[in-house]
C-alpha cells in the first residue's frame, strides 16, 4: 500500500517524488483545446433522420461526446462522488483490494506496472467486472456504504448506452442488425481512475499515450479537465461537458471494422488545482470470442488489414508489458547483408575474403 499516491499526499504536497518525474522529452506541455469532437445528442433518436445522423457520426470518428444518453444526471454525479469516497478511505479499508495480480477480480493498483516500470504514472485505479451484475456485485466493496447500489445502477445504465451505440455503429458501417450482440458485447468492465493533486503537473503524466483494447469506452470525466487526445500528431485538451460521456473507439472495434474505425490515442495529465476522479466503462467481448474483420466489409480475403485472434489469447500478462517508449514498431527488412557462398570458395576465394573483412 506504500505504492498508492493518495497514502503519501501529506508528504508530497511540495515536491514530486523523483520516481514519478519523466525525462524532459516525455513531459507534457500546455496544449490547446480540442474544438472538433462532435457532440451526439441521443434525445431525438426515435426520429429516423436523427438515427441516421447519429449512426453516421458514431461510425466515422474515433471520439465523440454523448449527451441525453439516458443515464440520469444524479447517477452520473453519484458514481464520481462514491468513487472519490473509495480512494479517501483509510489504508486498512483499501488494502485487501490492492494487488499486482491481473487475475484478481476487484483490483486496486497504482500507476501501470509499478514493480517493473522505471518511472511511475500519477494515477491510481480500482477496476472490476460488472456484467452479469449478479455474478460480481457480491465481490465489490461494501464501504463506502452506497458503493454497490450506485455502481450497480450505473453499470446497468451505461451498458444500455454502450449497446445502443454499437447498434448505431452497425448501421453506420452497413453491418447486419445485431452484429455486436451476444458474446461480442457480453462483458462490461468499470475502472475508477483517481489522479491525486499534483505539486507540479509539468513533470508527470497521469497516463501515457495509449489506446483502449476492447470495443468501446464510455468516460464519465466529471468537471476536472485532464484528458488529451492526439489528432494529426498534436495533443489537444478535451474540456469536460456536464453530464456527457466521452466515447472512444477501441482496438478490437478497429479490427472488426477492418480499419474503417480508428482507435483513439489519448493520455491524461493531472492537476495542481484539484484531484480528478473519473469513471471509465469498457464494453468488451467475452473471453472466448473470435475477433476478426466483419466478412461483409471485405471485398475479398486479401482486403483484410488484420488477422483474427481469440480474446482468450488477447491479453498479455501485465508483467510482460513494456512501457510505451520501449515497445517495438514495425520495421523494414534488411536487404544489405551480403551472402557468402562457400560452395564457390575454390573459384572465388579472393572475393569471399573481401566480403568477410
Describe this structure in words.
The protein is built from seven helices and 14 strands. It is α+β, with helices and mostly antiparallel strands and 357 residues long. The chain has one domain: Jelly Rolls. Helix 1 (48-58) links the parallel strand 1 (39-41) and strand 2 (63-67). Helix 1 (48-58) crosses helix 5 (147-173) and helix 2 (73-87) crosses helix 5 (147-173). The longest helix has 27 residues, at 147-173.
How confident overall, as mean pLDDT? 87
- The secondary-structure class comes to alpha+beta
* Global Rg: 24 Å
Low-confidence segments, given as residue ranges, are: none
Biggest sheet architecture: 8 strands, mixed
Overall CATH class: Mainly Beta
The general outline is: globular
Oligomer: single chain
User: Numbering strands along the chain, what is their spatial order in the largest sheet?
Assistant: 1-2-10-7-12-5-4-3
Q: What is the CATH-assigned architecture?
A: Sandwich
SS strand fraction: 15-25%
CATH topology term: Jelly Rolls
Distance between the termini: 58 Å
SSE order and pairing:
Layout: E1 39-41, H1 48-58, E2 63-67, H2 73-87, H3 91-94, E3 107-110, E4 124-129, H4 133-136, H5 147-173, E5 187-195, E6 207-210, E7 216-220, E8 227-231, E9 234-237, E10 245-249, H6 251-256, E11 266-268, E12 276-284, E13 290-291, E14 309-310, H7 349-356
Parallel strand pairs: 1-2
Antiparallel strand pairs: 2-10, 3-4, 4-5, 5-12, 6-11, 7-10, 7-12, 8-9, 8-11, 13-14
Helix pairs in contact: 1-5, 2-5
Which tags fit this structure?
Jelly Rolls; 21% helix; four-stranded antiparallel beta sheet; 18% strand; 357 residues; globular; eight-stranded mixed beta sheet; alpha+beta
